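Quick start: read one record
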Amino acid sequence: FEKDKLLFSVMLTISIYKFKGEIDDAVWRFLLTGGVGMGNPHKNPYPDWLTDKAWQELVYASELPNLEGIAFPLDPGFKDLYDSPEPQNCDYPGKWNYLDGLDRLVVLRCIRPDKVVSAMQNFVIDKLGQYFVEPPTFDLAACFADSACFTPLIFVLSPGADPMANLLKLASEHGFSGDKAPQAISLGQGQGPIAEKMIEDALIAGSWVILQNCHLATSWMPTLEKICEEQVVPDRPHPMFRLWLTSYPSDTFPVAILQNGIKMTNEPPKGLRANLLRSYLNDPITNYDFYE
């Protein structure tokens, strides 16, 4: 999921600006595909640093409205862009420095395709702001606030992430501790009937049930789907009842539960800044008792 966050932000940006009429479909298609042509009869003017593939794409790009003539002649100043360790932040030579948005990305895609991802990040920041390239830290309390007694809360697990500590802390903050602590069970062979009884009791008592590792109980998933459709419905459960589910991505997980539930994932953060921010927002640093 972490690897898809920038892609989601890019697609969101493109959709918004397409709606505004500020995205040229031909430029967007070129950025995605590199252009399509019937060969390139023109000789590469700088074979010592410009690859034939890059030259061919520049020739195709010169047919786009704002890039007309970029390849004929090709400004030798583009070699500085090619040699730069951060070409996504460089000025373009001569008159081409006025390019912005997708047009600028197309040129970079031709000459330095390895830096397109970084340039896409700059594109999103320019259009939507820094917020959309810095996903917020995981906030379990906010997810709980959005839920209701008839809304399953689903943790999509990833390697190295265990939500149980945060979940039990949240339960304690809402008065579910001691005798009222959430009932948890790791699903597997023969655990289905026990889990079903837990849900039946919790629906009446208004407690929390945590079903862990749903991906291991593939044969019981249809039963869970039936329980959610017939019993975990509006006006049926106790208002304080919550059904928490954890599972790795699985083809056997009921689609209906996914559609009706609140989906969460808590992947390990990437980068020093994200790791520090997560540490500052979790126990024990957020626990005032820790400092006493």
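The CA atoms of residues 137 and 274 lie 8 Å apart.
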